[in-house]
Specification:
mainly alpha
């Protein structure tokens, strides 16, 4: 099976919103390759450090929230 890394990156970026704290800080508990791609796209700070978290950029925060709603929101009345 060939994976669509664009879709994976979008899902991870959306899920980063769930762990957001202290402004734009998020936990970096996802696959390193995905985190590196998100950094290269300008959505997060460099994940290569001893810190357990990274910062979302302003663009990353906006896109993360947009994707969280687009990918995971429930239609009212749906189960």
């Amino acid at each position: 099976m060939e994976l669509d890394t664009d879709k994976i990156d979008q899902a991870v970026l959306a899920l980063l919103s769930l762990g957001r704290h202290d402004g734009y800080r998020v936990w970096k508990g996802f696959d390193w390759a995905v985190m590196n791609r998100l950094h290269e796209q300008g959505y997060i700070t460099d994940p290569v450090s001893k810190a357990h978290s990274v910062l979302l950029t302003e663009e990353g925060a906006r896109e993360s929230e947009r994707l969280l709603e687009a990918l995971f929101s429930r239609t009212p009345g749906a189960r």
